[in-house]
Fold this sequence. Notes:
Chain A is α+β, with helices and mostly antiparallel strands. Chain A has helices at residues 29-41, 46-69, and strands at 12-26, 43-44, 74-86, 89-101. The radius of gyration of chain A is 17 Å and the shape is elongated. Chain B starts with a helix and ends with a strand. Chain B: The chain crosses the membrane at residues 12-41. Chain B: It holds the Pfam family YbjQ_1.
Amino acid sequence: MVNTETIPGMMITETLGxxxxxxxxxxxxxxxxxxxxxxxxxxxxxxxxxxxxxxxxEAIGRMVADAMSRGATAIVNVRFATSAVTAGAAELFAYxxxxxxx
Amino acid sequence: xxxxxxxxxxxxxxxxxxLLLALFGILWTxxxxxxxxxxxLFSTKKLNQQIADTTSREALLRDSLGRDPLTTIDGGxxxxxxxxxxVWAGVVFGPSHWHLLxxxxxxxxxxxxxxxxKVVSAGRAEAMQRLRESAIANGWDDVINVRIDTADMAPQGxxxxxxxxxxxxxxxxxxxx
Lengths: 102, 177
């Protein structure tokens, strides 16, 4: 899985279309409150960083599962998109092109 | 008498969420000014410390490697790449409410808003540094085709929620043969 258009040292023999994975996640209200308090002081919001990291992992996992089901051996040109649905809930979206390599 | 007691319990149970909410509201009105003063006094110092910390880690890594592992070139510049894979790092970063206040005042006057610029670039530097560190930790020599995304954590600019941005940096880790 790479975000370049080609894989260095490998030949792409076939493209299998766009694969994607997405997830919407939120932290519980207790976390929202503590992060809100932390926000007054500024700086990094550690729990939200963790939340996005976990959700992105999940989105990537779904994308990879999608690619696997199509029989791909690699995903090239991976892109990420993030949007906040409401405060505290974020949608993570990962997409790329599934390819067969040799 | 027993009937009355039951109704009292039911009434209490029903009003419990509202009581908690009211309690939280009261605590908030007391705590918020205190925390705002705390932020006024210490948030600039905290931000500067954060920037200094990121810069020193960056310098340390650059010294130990002899170069910056990140490039934005698609495909890299060397042809002896043996393996590759994706690396990414993200950080959620927000200005303190004191910096927000300064920002709003600056916004009225117009021109460049230095406080926000400082906060966002601090977050971005932190995300890039984490990308470097995670690439090194995963055994990659370099990271090519680096992209940096910035997403707003507070949609619609409405009340409530945190005022923060998520900086997300990703690229392709490569190993040279």
